[in-house]
Every structure is written in C-alpha cells, then in structure tokens.
Write a structure and sequence with these properties.
The chain has 604 residues and is an alpha/beta fold. The chain is built from 24 helices and 19 strands. α10 crosses α24 and α11 crosses α17.
Length: 604
Amino acid sequence: MCGIAGWVDFDRDLTSERATALAMTETMSCRGPDDQGLHLEPHAALGNRRLAVIDVEGGHMPIEAEGLAVITYSGEVYNFRELREELAAKGHRFRTRSDTEVVLRGYLEWGEDVADRINGMYAFAVWDEREQELVLIRDRMGIKPLFYYPLPNGVLFGSEPKAILANPLAPPVVNLDGLRQLLSLASLRQRSVYQGLFELPPGHLLRVGRQGARLRRYWSLEGHEHTDDLDTTVRTVRELLDDIIGRQLISDVPICTLLSGGLDSSVVTALARTHGPIRSFAVDYAGYAEHFRPDEFRGDPDRPFVRMLAEHVGSEHTDIVLGPAELADPKLRASVVRAWDAPSFMGDMNSSLYMLFRAIREHSTVALSGESADEIFGGYAWFHLPQTVEADTFPWLAMAMREQQPSDMLDKSLIRQLDLDAYTADAYRTALAEVPHVPGQDARERRMREICYLHLTRFLPFLLDRKDRMSMAVGLEVRVPFCDHRLVDYVFNTPWSMKTFDGREKSLLRAAGADLLPEPILRRVKAPYPVTQDVGYEQALRAALRELAADKDAPVLRLLDPDAVREAASAPPEKVTTTMSRYSLELALDLNVWLTAYGVRLEL
C-alpha cells in the first residue's frame, strides 16, 4: 500500500521540475511512511511514498523495466504469486518479491489488459517509455482512490487531490458543481470537489499520450441469469469467502481484523482465525455501554457481542476506547479534513474512525474489514422498507429525508442556487439508466436489482473512500474482503428472494457463516457504525460554533445563514445526538477548516 503522484507534460522538460514533483510526492507521506522514490525524465515524473507490506526490503518504487516502462503503484494484488509463475514461464525475470513488479511485468506482457488479470485493490500509473504514454488504472470496485487533472498537453495525477493541488498548475477552485458534489450522498461519478480535477472511476483506465487522452472501462457489473439452487449458492458464497480471506491474509507485516460484533466483521474474523492466530480491534466510547440509549437504527451496544466473538474464536482482542474531549479536539478535526481534502458532515463517524486506525497502527500495519457486506447482501434497513424501496430517489436519501439535512445551516440563497433536489434527481436517473437487467424478471426482482446496483455504485464508493482516507492518513492498510469482484458479481446476480430466503437481511451471508459464529451474533440485527451518545460532544460542537460565529473574518460565514447559526449555537443538546441536525454543525465547522487550510477560491 502506498501513495502515488505524477506529472506528464509533452510541452516542457520535467527534469527541471524536480522540486515540484517531490512536493507532490511528499503530500503522500501519510500513505507511505516507509520510503520515497521519484522517477524523472523529460516528459514524465512518477513519485511514490511507500507503506511496506510485501517484500519490505526489496520493494522500492518506482520500479523500472529495462528502459521499457516504469510503474508507481498503490494497493495489493492478491493473486500475484500465480501471475508471477505464469510470467516467469513466459521468460520474465524478477529482481524483487513484490507484487508491484508482477504488475509491471504483466503490463509488458499483456499491455493495459493486465487489469483483467489482477485480483486486488489497486491504483497505479505506468509510464510506457516505448510509446511515450501514461496509463492510469484503478481497481474494479474503486477501493483505492486515483485522481487526475488534465493539462493542455499532459496530466497531473495522484492518490489524493492534495498531491495534485501541490502543483501550481492546479489551483484549489470550487464552483457550484463542486459544492453539490460535496453536499450530496448522490454524487455524480468521476467528478471531484475541485474544478478541473477528476476521479478515475472504478474499473476504468486512462491512457494519455501526445494525441490526447482516452478513457476506457475495462470492468463493470453485468447481468446474468442465476441458475444455482439455494444450497449451491450458500456453498459458493462460503467457498469464495474462504478463498478471499486466505488470499488477503498474505502479508510480511503484522495483520489484524476490525471487529464490531456484527455479522460481517465476525465472519471475517472467524475465517481469518481458521488460518492461524489473529488479533482484533474494536472501537468503543467511554461510558457508552453503561449509558446506552437505543434508537431506530441501533438496539444494543457492540461491546458484549465483540467480546463474545473474540472469546469464541480466540482472537487476541483490544478495545480502543474514545472520550468526548478527544473527539471534539480542533486539531483532530483539522487532521480529518486534511485526510479528506474536503469537509464532511459525518462528524465523529470520521474522527472516531481516524482515532481507531491511529491506535491500531501502533500494533498492526494491515487490517481486514467487514465493509461492503451490507451493500452486497442487502443489510441496511432501507433495503427492506416499502417506503424507501418504492421512493423515486436513492433509498438511503429517502430514509434521511425524515431528518434535517446537513446543508440546513447554509445561506438560503446559496441553497436555491445549488438546487440539490435537481442534482440528486439527475444523479438518480443516470444511475438507473446503467442497471444491467436480466430478461424475465418480475417487477419486485427488477426493482431490487436496481436498489442493489445503486448501493454498489453510488453508496459504497463513499464508504470505501472514507475507509481509505481515514486509514491511510495514519499509514494503516485496510483490506475489504467482501469487495472481491468475484463475490460481488456472483451475489449481485443472485435473486432478491434468495438473498432474503429466511425473511431476514443478509440471509446468504448468515447461512454461509452459520457454523463459524455464536447464535446471538447470527441472530443480531444490523447495527451501524457507532457514534458517541455523550451530550458533552454536542456541547463542544455548539461552543465551537459560537466561537466561529464571533470571528468576523471566518471565511465560512459567507456561506452560512446567520439566523441558523445563532439558533444552532444556542440550542440545547438533543437527547440522542445522532440526527442529521448534528451533522449540519459538523459541516459548518469542517467548511471553515477547509477554506482556511486549503486557500480555496470559491467561484459561486
């Protein structure tokens, strides 16, 4: 796992731009604390910051191949051993044990079609010295991020926007479309918050040469008729998970699992334990279990289930306990905004994840997560509520519309300009038009296929980006076994009636892991990532907002409604602080940090 950055320009000699190329690369030091490398030639600069996971001693990057091509790489290839054997049989010789060199040799053998052969999470750049072209490739599910900024005769690229923004050719300009992207959980794919800066979509590659740029999709979800019976389907899911977990445990550094006591993370931890000793970590809040208050999303605290699973499988377990003062620390907020390169309304869901990962990094370099099982197997409540399934919008937004929106504190005229309803409707129609349907489906199966597709292509990318940014900001690699494209494709094409065959959410996963888990965990209802219920946290948010409102030079004030700010700053804490109204406070504070730290120029 690493951070990559680079610059291709056919109009200038980049050998005189070493300082700028190094500055771009250095922004990725959080992603790669172990090593730094830079390849520089007249029209190409490729930088890498390395987090050493495979071949710790020999995997320095960028890696060159006999003047033919150079690669800078981020991610993990889980089938690199098989590919290495295949390439060696074709005459390729390797100088390292790293998966990066396997990808480079694979490119020399198969060209850009190497992407079709890789199983893993990755974002990489190959400078083809023979063709004088750059090839950018991102994994099928978009687990690893990759951004690019087209130039008149070239391109800037990086694992994160901050790498690109370190180049004077890419100023941090944000217009209305950027704010729409920032404020919506229905983002249009490929756009970024910053004007002129794009995200390479999952399953795509971009080739840049003297004649221009060519974007190509090499993988997407496809519709297939599912012919397996229920028993075969459950068995196939389990066999895939066994293979996936086994592959993703390969590491030359300490590895662990993230454990919440829910079905997803418990299956991952239990399967990991079948391969040998495993360490597990969970997030908790001071006094959370003792003073827990159930709400419509969460009926019980995680701690008892975490301990039950850890004892059941015999993992070496550690709870990371957080307090409200730590979560409200302005320095922590600044670190999270820096990790995102943008503000967010997710509040302590982000900051607590950042703190959890930072604590884990003291013990492990790699962690396995249960992320994405809900999107794949249908775990969220809104998969199962008629009013959200039948709503003419994204189902998670139909659920959230009952609450205040995170944009509620924005200036009313700005809200009218943004017209987020029209933006969301356009994003929804675009997504629906992509769904690969199967002939002969009844109306119910057709609609649930759409719901599943929306989650996999519009909701999951947001969560994967969050997981990647918060973990890589502290140099922790987080792997997501449920995002293996083989599993995703298989389950996506499984009928909804089979996914809910026992009348519950995630029926297939529960059946596939039935022999691994204690009965209470198998029966446990889906619970979201926990947020603090301590009123002290919201009191700290409101105090910070009052301080912000008193600072007449605060750049965010031009975006906020003064009456809404006064009301939010003086309102008493809510009894249960998990509604969208709290997220509007978080967004206002994040916006100010971002505008100040990044010197953003707003063109509204």
